[in-house]
Amino acid sequence: MEILPKLKKIKGDASFREFYRNKENKSIVVISKKEKLKNLLIYDAINKILIRNKILAPNLLRENYIDNYIEINDFGDQTLLQILKNKKNNKFVIFKKVIKILNNIQSIKDKKVKNFKNKLYKVQEYNNKILFDETKLFCDWYASMKLSKFKYIKFKKKFRLEIRNLLLKLNYKNITFVHRDFHVSNLMYYNKKIAVIDSQDALIGNRAYDLASLIDDVRLKTSNELKEKVFRFYIKTNKKIDLQKFKKDFEILSILRNLKIIGIFMRLAIRDNKKKYLKLIPYAWELINHRIKEQNEFYNLMMILKNNFPKYIR
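Above: the chain sequence. Below: its structure as tokens.
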């Protein structure tokens, strides 16, 4: 690609994308040869929906789909993760601002948008099959590496059955716009505002999912007290929520998400040689352990995990 020599490569993420900074244009070039439909075309379509709803997100400046890239706004290098890791900053004040953005995202009613190929894109439903397939990644990539073949076959059967049971206990319908990777690494601090990036996986799903993603974030260690404060603030700003039903959904989705994340991090290490993600797995286990103790309906899952991965109970 002729534009690349002029550009500076910047740090990537867990996807198949590459990112280059164009200082002249104050832009970012996103290159994706694999999964380019999702990483380029759908990414821009979701950004259009966010922008239309007054949420700061990358605007498309130029597209060259044939050559596997798009050019978007540059929101700089400062993520909210970096700001929250600075001990001088008041974490709760920052999280309150993030909850306001989450509330704006959850108020989005648009499900359809024209992409830059002038074709209509409809945001799909985040149904139980997708949630199940995601949680299965724990089985496929982590359990299969950690257990003997005999133990793995037994574990897989019990684990899958219990995940299906938990999914049936979810209360809230799939009617809410879900970013699906809503955590502080995907929120940029730019011109005293918070911008939302990495939204290509957005679906219409359970309203507890993004909150679980934000509060029980494997990349940022926070106290249980702060987690509870942020959760209570969200409830305070959403008075129509049935607290008991919502809390159950929040905890189920947090556990399933962090099981999925353990599977994804193991896959990144084995398949893509991105071993840096392995160091985040112990905290993912900690987050699962914290939530799994909360309610009786997790007893079966807790025993399945404890019997096969005893070290995880800290």
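The chain is about 45% helix and 15% strand.
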